[in-house]
Records
---
Amino acid sequence: MSNQRVKIKPTPWDIREEGYQKEHNLYFESNFTLANGYMGARGLLEEGFPEEMETYPGLYIAGVYDHYNDPYVELVNCPDFYHGEITVGAYPLVMREDNTSDYTRTLCMKDGTLTREFVWTAPDGSKTRIFWQRFFSMDNVHLACQRFWAQPLDHSHPIVLKTGFSADVFNRRQQDYPPLKTIIPNHHLAFLSAGVSPSSGAWLSAQTKTRKTELAFCSHVKAVQGGELRQYTEKHGVVQEFTFACAPGEHVGMDKVVSVYTSRDGRAPVPEALADVGETY
């Protein structure tokens, strides 16, 4: 991390980052962490990172520890359900300081929401406004929510959003931090199963390798202003992919509800997670 001063704006209820500051990403990931006592996630960029950016991904569930292939017992990094790969026309959205403007990231301490907004300029010069918002429920600690909006400002390119779950996640060896330059992954999770339902639902089941704690994740997605949904399983998880036909100035988007259970909760986690978001299989 550089020694330059971090630009952050305090308000009565908000902690706000103004302007995209790639060199301070680790700082902001920590400061924009959300949690509800059952699970929590670092403030990662939903759409991913440039290869050169330092990042420490982390989504954790209380009590889920493991020590597979490692002398340390540690909190397991769990599947990230907030990620969302975006493609505008032929161009994958990759944020850089020279193609991102009007950028803000705001943690509202009153509402418990984390919101990001920015305008992204594609290689062809077209501009798209992007909006993300997430929170963890305090009423039902097994639930999390996410909202995505996109607004083409001067083009009609189709917009594709890919989200879902993957069990191909890992912890970084504790003795290798710092620095983060050399990443030695430790995969604590074994993929068990995944599936989709006709009613816009998807689920993933995985298990810690040493302690055999089973984890279940289920999501229900809904398109805002249309959007064609395609769902499919892959090697380590499941994908929910929206394709939006767009017009300049029109908003398109998605709302997502996620339910998370583990075998530590005393019930079969997959049926419980499915029931929480109204899904059956």
---
Amino acid sequence: MSRAAQPAIVFPTANKEGLYRFPDGEVYLRVPGLKHIERATIVHSGYPDPSGGIIELLMILNILRKYAPNMERAHVIFTSMQYARQDNAWYDGELNMAQMLIDMLDLRFGVNAISTIDAHFAREDWVRPYSILTDVSAVENLMDKAIADYPGIIFVTPDAGAQRRIRIKMAAGAKKKRANSFDVSVMLDEKFASVIKGKVVGVVDDILSTGNTLVRFAEQARKLGAKKVVALITHGVGSAGISRVQKEFDGLYLTNTINHPEANVDIRGLVDTCILQDRL
């Protein structure tokens, strides 16, 4: 913990037994030594326990309010923000959970800045009025790693939603039809087929959960003549999905926004950038 007027990285500590969870599942943590903190940067990953992670974050923010009376600025950096995919209210009685969390951090806790990495909601219209919110992308990090292994690789997105979210223009032409939250089908048009035939194809997406969409895409791409198919993923939220993609694809490039042993693309530089930008 830095005691100067610099952003401080907050490291919580566990209970006497070295645990952050009680036997009944309740969250425990403490953050000592905050008396002289003036600026705090909280680096938070919402996984592998999305709901418990929210409790952890709210506890840290409340601890800062209580034990850091001189704190002037709080900056939350989500390496992977939980509930980010619940970013619209489509049906009666639904909540936009992503917006609710941002509002809570802003209005209830007075957080001065929120940084995200490839947040699922980053390109939604409702995000624009939030001046405290900044999203950075790991896509170029992923692409650089894949290009080093496959110099002639063609980058594509698996559906229109991914095309909209990813900031780098890529080949389009894939359509996804979702029967429910788990059952999807992917269709590739003829123009798309002409682009990928005989090529190494890199499928870029922000989130890997079950792997259903990616696996369907890989199956169709191979039928249309793709030489190899590799996946480039920012957030690996599901271990089973990661294992499935590793089995079905010729390669997986996965960042460490969430702690997985399969992660092979480091995003610490993006976190450093978020911290440095907040100092300006």
